[in-house]
Amino acid sequence: MLGLVPVAYGFFEAKRFRVQRYRLPVLPPGANPISVLQVSDFHLRLKNGRMIRFLESLGSEEYDLVLATGDLLGAQDAAGECLRLLNGLRARTARMFVFGSSDYFAPVLKNYLDYFLKRRRHGTSRNPTEEFRHGLKSHGWTDLNNHNLVLEVNATRTQVTGLDDPYLKRDKRQLLVRDPGAEVAMLVVHDPAPYADAFEAGYDLTFAGHTHGGQVRLPLVGAVVTNSTLPTKLAMGPSQIGRSWLFVTPGIGTGKYAPFRFLCPPEASVIELIARDV
Hints:
The protein has 6 helices and 14 strands. The protein has helices at residues 4-13, 49-57, 79-87, 113-117, 129-138, 195-200; strands at 18-27, 34-39, 62-69, 90-98, 142-143, 147-153, 156-162, 184-188, 205-208, 217-218, 222-223, 237-241, 244-248, 267-275.
């Protein structure tokens, strides 16, 4: 019976939505701060009423950038509602998105051992990806999937490179070339697997999701799996690697067939980018 207690708590924790705030010193000395809202891994289904209300609440604040880092769809009939919720988020400069595997394929029941054995398997029933993409773009969102751009964000010349989902091997890593005129360079991607390539290319920061922070974390151990080539110690939050940073949000939802979390509450991440000392 005692073994059922953490399982029951895991279903409860999966609905404990929160906003978590971070500060990362990645900008050049003297630069103005840049505020970023990152949302990820909704796996949205129409019955997720509490999540829907949480996402609606995020529109009360405006940010310099809003990043949606994939696995937003959790059911074929949720695209319209997901679009409505995303359009409620407000940005002063840009709202940008990349896709994960769940934005392409509807969920499928997996053997949980697949996560430990790193077997990659997805469903064959397709989500309305192109309609969803078109809806986002028509409402002013920038499609970052395998796309590179440079823009001014709060007076800082900022390079943003987005990659399509590495888990599905759709990412074009040859795009990871730092613009010599950029004061700061960021990679935005769903699966954080290309983080080392970005750092080697001179990028200052990688934003990613996908891991759900491990989804199940153990005391003194942390994440058990990442469902990625990413080491478990980097599965959640900010990690500094040399002068570069990786930020992995634990995301907001869970997969349809694993609707629980343990010591890893769901979150929308607000990251304030600030100037380095030197």
